[in-house]
Amino acid sequence: MCPLPKLLEYHGETGKPEAWLQQARAKIEVDYHGCTDYVKFWALSGSLRGKALRRMEAWVREQGVPDWADGSAFLSRVNFVFRDPQAKVRAQRKLDALRQSSKPFLELFMEWQSLLLESGGSWPDNAKKISLIRILSDELVQAMATVPSQPDFESYCSIIKETDDRLKAYKARNRTQGSKLTTHHPSLLGSVLQTLHKLEQTTRT
Fold first, then answer.
1. Beta-carbon neighbour count of residue 15 at 10 Å?
2. Residues whose CB is less than 8 angstroms from the CB of residue 145 and which lie 6 or more positions away in sequence, other chains included
3. Taxonomically, which superkingdom (predicted)?
4. Taking a C-beta distance cutoff of 8 angstroms, is the pair 37, 21 a contact?
5. End-to-end CA distance of the chain
């Protein structure tokens, strides 16, 4: 079995232990599977630095003995000490306020996805679609009106990105020609984008 990359150092960024905890759990599960909890405990402790080391030091000294040391308990302690109890609430507020405006869809999607994870919970695909369509610009929503429905969420996101890319390309071309894109007629806009899409497919073939 191939070992995982070296466990990252954790410096105690308050409210942001999740990424380190995720990597630490995987590291312990894969590379330390056959080791004792004592070894796992001190392997995890060895990655603490700065504020994290100072805040965990007393507990580590107390618990880091062969009879008490426990890798799972160590991870739970890090989560207890450094997690932000209001992080989910703040993430949900940011998610509620998020809008595309002039952002490219990919940039918006990455921000939306990050906030979705931070807000917690398990979102079914239909709920994700509703949440995502709510934050898109009116222009992109209009353009999506003529796009066929997609069978899964990944395909749905891909077609939004393609539509957004074509829309921006069309607007850029119109700007260079000194004209303006009219966004008040979704059927006209959709027809234009469908034509561009067909031209792209023809070019590829």
1. 13
2. 186, 187, 190
3. Eukaryota
4. no
5. 43
CA dist 33 and 66 (Å) reads 17
pLDDT tens figures, 164-200: 999 888 888 877 776 554 544 555 455 555 544 554 4
Cα dihedral 138, 144, 149, 153, rounded to 10, equals -60
- Alpha carbon 56 to its chain centroid, in Å, reads 29
Q: Render pLDDT for 67-107 as a digit per residue (tens, 0 to 9).
A: 999 999 999 999 999 988 788 888 899 999 999 998 999 99
Task: Return phi, psi of residue 10, to 5°.
Answer: -120, 125
